[in-house]
Amino acid sequence: MATAKRRILQGQSLPGYPPEIGTWLWAMEAVRQRKLRLVEGLDQRTLDWEGLDARENGIGSLLYHIAGVEVGWLFIDILLQPDLPASLKVDFPFESRNAEGRLTPVLGVPLDEHLGRLTRSRRTFLDTFREIPAEEWRRLRHPDGEDYAVTPEWAVFHLVEHEAGHAFQISSLKARAKRHFGSRA
What we know:
The chain has helices spanning 19-39, 44-48, 59-78, 86-89, 111-129, 152-181. The chain is mainly α and 185 residues long.
């Protein structure tokens, strides 16, 4: 009897990082790849759809938000810089939230532009973490104006959790948009 080929489900460490840090960065990459598969080939109508009542965050708005949160945690909370570098600021022309506290709707932006922003934010994150020594992984930072202290370890955990939660939200929106618009979504 022939044995079926088994898939190997195993975490690993991204090369070029201390193992503990590299394992968490691998988890960030694994969640990102899952989300990228979810949005592959989406049309503009589906990216911009805000649910039946037009009160949800559209997929495009969520993609913008995910990239912004990633670089925000990196520069403001981990590196303790007061703002994003000019080279990244150009990718974020919209405020994170509107006057009502809702994510700013980012509509009419093509999927390729969102994917480019996500690629640049992740590349910046991973490149910066190559320079963070292992002994800094659990050192508390005290971001200006915040009522919390945070370690890079917790920030990376939070980013894995954050993106996974939004991947579920994107999956739900995509499925509902398909039912709403028909099989063309």
